[in-house]
Structure formats: C-alpha cells, structure tokens
C-alpha cells in the first residue's frame, strides 16, 4: 500500500509570501503538512519583538492553502520528540541559518537523525527586509529591480525580487469558474497581506455556497496615489503571490482599475444588472497603516533585532569558513 507521509514545518513572526512559498515546497515533499507556529515569548527570546501577535500568526498560517494543520505554541527548537508527537516522518526548513539565542542550530537533533529536509528560500524577501522598508519609509522598493534594506545580512539579506511566470503558476490554482459557482470580485491594495485581509476574504467566501473569488490588485502607482507616503510596502508582484497563497482566493487580476467598470465585469461574464455590490464587514480593524505604526513605535527594538541577526549570521559564516579551512589543511597533511 502507498505510504502517506507527514511533514512538519515551523514558522514565526511576520507571515509573508516567502513563507508561503516555503510551505508550498514543503507540502510537495509529503502528503500532509503540519506547521508549528511559535508564541510571542519564544520569538522575543530568540529573535526579538514579533510584528504580529501569536493569535494573528496562527490564523494567517491556517489561511495558507497548502497547510493542513497548525500546531500552536510550537517549541523554537525542533526535536525528535516533537516530530513523533505529531506522527511526522520528517521536518522541513529553508536553506537559511536558524539559531537559538545562544547561537545553536535549532535543527541539530533532527539533522543528525536524518529526518530533516531542506527547501529553497525565496530570494528577494525576508521579515528583516520588510521591516527595513517600513523603517526607511522610502519608495525605492516599488522598483522590480532593487529591494532595499538598512542591514547587510550575509545569509538572508536580499537584493532583488524578480517575478516570473513560473512562480505565478506555482501559486495559482489554474482553475476556471465551474457551473454553479458564484463569481465574486473584490479589489484593493492588499499590501503586507495580513489577518485583516484574511478575515475580509473569509467573510466574502461565506457569501455563497460555492464561491469563486477574484481579487483585483491595483498597480503600485495607483496605490501610492490614494494612500500616499511610501505605500505600497510590497510591489504588485509581491502582493500577487501573497494573495494567491490564500485558500479563499481563486484568481487575481494584476493591475486592476481603481473603478470597477462594465468592461471588467463583462470580462468575467458577470450578469449586467444593478444591485450586485455588497459591503462586507471583516470584523477586524487591523490595517497596513497599523502594522507600519507597530514598526515605527518600536523602531529601536526592531533595529536592534536586525543588527543582532546580522551579527549572528556573520559569526556562523566565519565559523563555517574556519571549519572548511581546517578540513582543507587536514586533507593537505594527509596527502603529504
């Protein structure tokens, strides 16, 4: 009989499309994906102040379409005991460095046991980078070529995010509306895709028995026109992946017009009749502005957190270099 494998992956802090891509890759390695999400106290101890609360993170991760189950309050160090507790065959993590507060590899035990697998991290995004964008409050990140950060992280530091058709295909469902489904169109910036957006889309999803939700995303220039400042924090390509990763979304219109026109409705074969607009209350007051204010309010804490991460990564890379140099010397002596 076929063996159904379960894999375990842990997430923390600000949930973004890089994490979603990690989850997509992890799900492809097995049949059932369990995601461990850390508490606020665990993150504060090992990494610094979290951007989102643990309750916000739990719900955000559950809304990602590749997730089958969420473990709340997962331990920061992944052990064999944790894997066995949830009947997981192996755990998955990205190919970046994860360390405890005292500089130890959080996956050391499962790596030694052979129950560790790795997926590629998504180039061009990290929590550190997104926090850096909000701290800088500039518009340079609107470019598709350069993504800025105040910190030069040697391992997870980012320089660019380049959207490809393959990446969109990986995130998109590719399913056309089926007979009997109700097509629902919503539009907006959906910047820094967060729990407020999830609650809204979940409420929209409940409007019909078989909903097919299309999300229109405004171009960066349009968002900046009506929001000002340095918005959007994420460019339209990044926002596309963030929205496509949500289990309530069926399709995305990239660069949707600010005003919903007759032509737009006709494109999706919507009925041309009056009274089809509904206002949905998400029940959540969180906004992108509120998230930015969280960062600004704790500017010094987040700057210290990013600097601490930079120092950790430099220390690990230097240790790896020394180890490699020692191995090279040993091989040279063996030859002599």
TrEMBL record:
The keyword Kinase does not apply. Keywords: Lipid biosynthesis, Lipid metabolism, Nucleotidyltransferase, Phospholipid biosynthesis, Phospholipid metabolism, Transferase. Belongs to the cytidylyltransferase family. PANTHER family: ETHANOLAMINE-PHOSPHATE CYTIDYLYLTRANSFERASE. GO terms for biological process: phosphatidylethanolamine biosynthetic process. NCBIfam families: cyt_tran_rel. Pathway: Phospholipid metabolism; phosphatidylethanolamine biosynthesis; phosphatidylethanolamine from ethanolamine: step 2/3; Lipid metabolism. One of its GO terms (molecular function) is ethanolamine-phosphate cytidylyltransferase activity. Residues 12-131, 186-269 form the Cytidyltransferase-like domain. InterPro entries: CCT (IPR041723), Cyt_trans-like (IPR004821), Ect1/PCYT2 (IPR044608), Rossmann-like_a/b/a_fold (IPR014729). Pfam families: CTP_transf_like (PF01467). This is ethanolamine-phosphate cytidylyltransferase. It comes from the Eukaryota. One of its GO terms (cellular component) is cytoplasm. It comes from Haplochromis burtoni (Burton's mouthbrooder). Its EC number is 2.7.7.14.
């Amino acid at each position: 009989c076929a063996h159904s494998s379960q894999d375990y992956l842990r997430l923390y802090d600000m949930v973004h499309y890089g994490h979603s891509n990690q989850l997509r890759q992890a799900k492809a390695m097995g049949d059932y994906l369990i995601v461990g999400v850390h508490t606020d106290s665990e993150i504060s101890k090992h990494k610094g102040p979290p951007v989102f609360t643990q309750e916000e993170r739990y719900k955000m991760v559950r809304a990602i379409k590749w997730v089958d189950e969420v473990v709340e309050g997962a331990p920061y160090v992944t052990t064999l005991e944790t894997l066995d507790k949830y009947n997981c065959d192996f755990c998955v993590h990205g190919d970046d460095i994860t360390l405890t507060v005292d500089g130890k590899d959080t996956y050391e035990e499962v790596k030694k046991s052979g129950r560790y697998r790795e997926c590629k991290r998504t180039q061009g995004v990290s929590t550190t980078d997104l926090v850096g964008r909000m701290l800088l409050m500039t518009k340079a990140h609107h470019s598709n070529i350069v993504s800025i950060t105040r910190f030069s992280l040697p391992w997870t530091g980012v320089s660019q995010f380049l959207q490809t058709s393959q990446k969109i295909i990986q995130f998109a469902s590719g399913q056309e509306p089926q007979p009997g489904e109700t097509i629902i169109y919503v539009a907006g910036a959906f910047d820094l895709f967060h729990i407020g957006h999830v609650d809204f889309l979940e409420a929209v999803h409940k409007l019909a028995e078989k909903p097919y939700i299309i999300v229109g995303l405004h171009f960066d220039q349009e968002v900046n026109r009506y929001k000002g400042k340095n918005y959007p924090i994420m460019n339209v390509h990044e926002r596309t992946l963030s929205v496509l990763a949500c289990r309530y979304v069926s399709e995305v219109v990239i660069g949707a017009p600010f005003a919903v026109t007759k032509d737009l409705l006709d494109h999706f074969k919507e009925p041309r009749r009056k009274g089809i607009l509904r206002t949905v209350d998400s029940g959540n007051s969180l906004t992108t502005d509120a998230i930015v204010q969280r960062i600004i309010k704790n500017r010094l804490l987040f700057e210290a957190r990013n600097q601490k991460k930079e120092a950790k990564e430099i220390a690990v890379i230097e240790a790896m270099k020394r180890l490699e140099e020692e191995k090279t010397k040993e091989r040279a002596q063996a030859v002599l």
